Amino acid sequence: MSIDLALLGCAHPHVPDVLGVLAAEPDLRLVAAWDADRSAIPGPISGVAVARPETAIRQADAVLICAPTDQRPALCAQAARAGRPLLVEKPIARSAAEARALAREIERSRTPAMVALHLRQVPAVGRLGALLREGLLGRVGSVRASQAHPGALDGWFDGPVAWMRDPERAGVGGFGDLAFNLVDLLGLLPAEEPPRLATVAMDGDVGGTALGTWAGVPLTVHASWAERPGGLEVVVHGGSGTATLRGGTLELEREAGRPERWVGAPPDAGEAVRAFAAALRARRLPRDGLAAAVRVQETLEAAIRVG
User: Could you tell me which of 213, 183, 198, 172 has the C-alpha nearest to residue 292?
Assistant: First the structure.
């Protein structure tokens, strides 16, 4: 049995990843695509383009929302009122206050919702969590997390995607966009307290570096749209070892013995869509799927305001 999906918003860097998953999964069928800017709809899916988002929602079993951030709350609410499970890009709104209000509305509708946080699907992240739970690093002393890409250098945000560099539409720039993934990732790891950011030094709208704490130890979070080659890196220093997650590879170095290396699949934005599809198939969708996104946005907003 196929799952009919509607795509709301086509001017986002992850849309090619979304379409790649839909093309590869036989039971996923794109039945409608909408964008306020009709020219943003890719040619290969122009045949399912519709003029109104409610038309797209009505035709689908579930909804994928990649629209600009300022449009996301209204589109999420429309999908939820129609009873359509939804997957929405992060951040879910331009501010933490808007995000909280949206999460409350979605919860009242009892419609399942998920956020496209693809780093959750990286196998090495789960492996790092297991190392920490087993105490293989000893007492953790510091954590450094970074994610970067050269998008601002390579023109990723030209044309219809230019809204991502407009704070009135996007709500965040390069730092908030990528640090969102990192703060969420750190929140998944076993710790007595979630990551907290005290302040951030911004690099214009393309990135920045924040200082804070995770599990009571020093934390550095760096994110940028203007670094080549970029990539994901998380380094956890402990009293008896250091774990380095780089892309899809996790390496453990301890005082004795040779370094241990585990190689897994690298980050892939399409994995968020696959996770959503798997939840739809299993009928195991979260009822509070926006809660983590609200917490992350609150954390980032507080640090940016101080910085």
Answer: 183
User: 3-class DSSP state for residue 146?
Assistant: strand
Please check the confidence at residue 11 and state whether its pLDDT lies above 80. Answer: yes
Greatest CA separation for the chain: 64
d(CA 78, CA 97): 19
Buried-state track 67-99, b at ≥16 Cβ within 10 A, e below 16: bbbbbbbebbbbbbeeebbbbbbbbbbbebebb
Are 176 and 95 in contact by the 8 Å Cβ rule? The answer is no
Rounded to an integer, what distance in angstroms lies between the CA atom of residue 51 and that of residue 193?
A: 46
At residue 217's C-alpha, the angle toward residues 191 and 172, to 5°, is 80
Both 179 and 281 in one domain: the answer is no
Can you read off the two tokens belonging to residue 164?
């991502």
pLDDT in tens, 245-270: 999 999 999 987 789 999 999 999 99
Residue 61 within a domain: yes
- The amino acid at 263: V
* Residue 302 maps to a domain: no
The residue range of the domain holding 165 is: 119-267
Residues 6+ apart with CB under 8 A from 2: 27, 28, 29
C-alpha to C-alpha distance for 198 and 306, rounded to whole angstroms:
7
Do residues 77 and 166 both lie within one domain?
no
| pTM for the structure as a whole | 0.95
